[in-house]
Structures
1.
Amino acid sequence: MATYHYILASEKFLLEEEPLEEVLQERQRHYAERNQTIDFWLVRQPAFLEAPELASVKAQCPQPAAAIVSTNPQFITWLKLRLEFVLTGSFEAPTAAIADPLASLVAA
């Protein structure tokens, strides 16, 4: 089981109102310079929000939602500082209620 950390906001906010593409490209460049593996993913309408234990988080976020999910908590803190008006949290996966969030990305 892995711990995933996330920022969460409305899809419109993250993808249209914020310079997210620029921020993620900057971070990808940073990782490439240090030969680090990418450990973050953009997830539209994240399925983990359907888990009963995350119902209160889903209720706080305008829908449709989008999230940046990472295994690196420092990266999520950095994003929170850059984007400000986002929710943050973490979850364990896979569990009975939450599938591995990366499984659908590999299949896509």
Note: DSSP finds five helices and four strands in the chain.
2.
Amino acid sequence: MPTNDRVLTVGPAGVPGVLLLHPWWGMTPAVREWADQLVAAGRRVLVPDMFDGATPTTEAAAETLADAALADPATAELVAACADTLAAGGVPWAAMGFSLGAFLACPLAGRGDAAPDELVLFYGGRPPTGDVRTRRVELHVAPGDPWFTAEELDEVSSGFRGAGAEVVVHRYEGSRHWFAERGSPGFDAAAAGLAHDRVIARLRTAR
């Protein structure tokens, strides 16, 4: 377990885990709500706070924090330490991320035996590299999303399929980026509810 106080850990030990990676809005109430729902589905959840408590309220401020986090090696180290904790538990685990978090989740698939069994990606991601052992990738996307384009979706999907993973894409017509995060500029209650039901149903049974 990472030894700093930047990781929220909820749920019992010894059950399948989820590494939950927040968007560029930081560790918002919406992220904590998702963590609680995953725990209710029987999962242990680790949520690293990559912004050290900051929760920006404008796109400009969020982008600045996201760029700084991506440029700081400590961010990848924090994510990797959480992944190592879950991988060491000897039970299946998944990585789940929103936008920025989805981008950071994808490299975990290339960690060989220490890779997550599944990835759950919301409106973001990148093609895998390394020794990919992740068996399933589920993408939840908003058609026409300028922040995660159809071309980027194709690159991620084809990259993971080429690495041998099963790829499932859920498209939420009429929704926008951040649709699954309550309180975000793009929140869509109907789309978020459908995404929630799909994710929880999958992660409740994939043990």
Note: The domain at 7-205 is CATH 3.40.50.1820 (Rossmann fold).
